[in-house]
Amino acid sequence: MRNKAENDGSTVSSNTNQNDSSQTSRMHNAYQKTMTALGVARDGIAIGVPTVSASFDAANASVDAGFAMSHRAITSSLRAASFLGLIDGEKAGTAQQSVRNVVDAAHCITKGSLGASATITKASLKASDIILSATGAQQGETLRLLSKRVASQEGDKRDMGNALIGLISLLAKVGGYHLSNNPLALMPAARSLAALHEEQRRERIRRRHESSTFRLRVPLSSDMLSLSKHMRYAAAAYGLIGMGNCWSRYGKGQVPWMCDEDVIQDLTGLNRSDIICINPGEGIYQPAHFVAIDHKDKEVIVAIRGTMSIQDVLVDLVCQTENFTSVPEDEEDEMVVEGKAHEGFLKSAQRLAGKLHEPVVEALSNNPEYRLVVVGHSLGAGVATLLTLLWARIPVFRARDIHGYSYASPCCVCESISQAPFTRRHVTSVVFGDDLVSRLSLATFRELQRDIANISIKNNESSNQTTDADDEEKLYCAGKVWWLESNEYKPHPIVEIDPVEDLHHIELFSDMLTTHLPWAYLDALEKLDTHSDSGTENPI
After folding, report:
1. Where in the numbering of this chain does the Fungal lipase-type domain appear (predicted)?
2. Which distant-in-sequence residues (6+ apart) come within 8 Å of 138 by Cβ?
């Protein structure tokens, strides 16, 4: 009996311990969920503060514009009445001043109310954040939960989720500060910066003309013909949708039953049987492309399309950097160059490198004397650059004199890789006019923001803060870089430049957007005089 009682007591004690452990576990889980929820609330506040600031700033700007228009409307009405003799001039002046006083008072009251509302709202958000912080809630819970959810996904869903996480982090980094109480007040600063860029350009040109040692290099006629030809392949990758609106300028004329194959044929002169494959793009990090064989010039050509889809835009915006090696380790005669590359373009290039390896090797095997060429425009140019550098590591491709032609190339590699001998041997880039994209990277964008903010402060315009120094490394277009119709090197239509020297920051010029379009590059390249004396170093 006593043993039975002892056993019963032991069982009760064990059950009690298990219940206590289970209760502790439930309490711990409840605590974790509560802290997660509070952390998500802090993330919401972090997003809410700049959003509220921007909203009140926009409201302030709208109020200013509205009352300014009211002043003009009332003044114009009174002047018209005076001109028509409906009211004498003195009374019109008195009425105008009275109305102005009433409108100004209403303006002040409205602005004061908005200011008080903004102050109260921001103070409430700040107080809420302080309280949540005191509980131990940590910011970043939303991204942590999203990352956990993405990690459980597969394939395209996982890639898309990771890209969105990167985009959220980027927006937090770039947009987590507020430059001005009135965004419109920054416009004069931007105009001042554009004027400064014009002045700096004139000074650079003056110094070059005064220099007795400065020389520039222009391409050979054969190089110009090659640049023009391969741009047609890069443009053809856009297909009917991308090139249809300007088709009559480059092809045989668009007809209702035309398809992408027709665009490729008409722009490149290929036969349909020369097109190995066409891929419209299968998701993020998988840009549209086609592979074809040019029997006339003995080339196997991979052409990659630029930005035309939401997935492409995400690839552009995944602009943080990843480690990249430009030279294979088995190159004994050349130093290995370690550096950074644009994450979105690199991932896309890696996907294409695997996907296209077999069909391209087969095409080269069937055409033993042909070389391998990779071309692209815009996003396609960035991917083409990195795909070329990836494939140039592989002996079978390196033996075929692989070369990449990158048009309107975005900033895709760091300084050390951009002008490394290996890169210059395998990649040629073309920049037209003041194309913004060939200067745009995360680092140069942050630099532009700081410049505008600093000029705004210098001009005594309203500004809350300047941005911190950026820790992102600047990226550049790669290889041998030709600058087409540059306003820096007139009258020369095309010259070779060092992008690290000439394209190291964003400059504000009137044509910086329109020059990026593929047909703009086509027009400019086909206007080149390929019979002129070229390929020499000439004084500026």
Report:
1. 301-443
2. 35, 39, 42
Predicted local confidence at residue 258, as pLDDT: 60
Angstrom distances, CA of residue 350 to CA of 145, 163, 385, 417:
28, 16, 12, 17
**For 58, how many CA atoms within 13 A lie in the half-sphere containing its CB?**
6
Distance CA 306, CA 289 (A): 9
The phi-psi region of residue 140 (left if phi > 0; otherwise alpha if psi is between -120 and 50; otherwise beta) is left
Distance CA 504, CA 498 (A): 10
Report the range of poorest mean pLDDT among 61-65, 172-176, 437-441: 172-176
DSSP assignment of 175-236, as one string? HSS---SSGGGHHHHHHHHHHHHHHHHHHHHHHHHH-SS-EEE---HHHHHHHHHHHHHHHH
Query: What are the structure tokens assigned to 436, written together?
Result: 């913004």
Number of Cβ atoms within 10 Å of the Cβ of 273: 8
pLDDT in tens, 265-322: 888 999 999 999 999 887 888 999 999 999 999 999 999 999 988 888 888 888 888 9
Comparing CA positions, the residue from 285, 212, 209, 252 lying closest to residue 491 is: 209
What are 236's two structure tokens? 């053809």
Region 66-86: mean pLDDT is 70
Distance CA 352, CA 374 (A): 11
Pairing of strands 338-342, 537-539: unpaired
Tell me the domain boundaries of the chain. 2-149, 185-534
List Cβ<8 Å contacts ≥24 apart for 390-394. 390/349, 390/350, 390/353, 391/353, 392/328, 392/422, 392/426, 393/327, 393/328
Q: What pTM did the predictor assign?
A: 0.73
pLDDT of residue 121: 81
Range 220-238 burial, b when 16+ CB lie within 10 A, else e: eeebbebbbbbbbbbbbbb
Q: Which of 440, 421, 529 is nearest to 484 (CA)?
A: 529
The beta-strand segments (E) located in 269-409 are 275-279, 289-294, 299-304, 321-325, 338-342, 371-377, 403-407
CA pair distance 464, 186, nearest whole angstrom = 12
pLDDT in tens, 131-172: 877 777 776 666 566 555 555 555 555 555 555 555 555 555
Domain formed by 185-534, architecture: 3-Layer(aba) Sandwich (3.40)
pLDDT tens-place string over residues 102-127: 777 877 888 788 778 878 887 877 78
Q: Is the predicted pLDDT of residue 341 greater than 80, yes or no?
A: yes
Instruction: Please provide the size of the chain in residues.
Output: 540
Q: CA separation (Å) from 194 to 83, 189, 190, 266, 433?
A: 43, 9, 6, 41, 16
pLDDT at 515: 92
Q: Residue 47's pLDDT is what? A: 64
For the chain, the average pLDDT equals: 79
d(CA 491, CA 496): 14
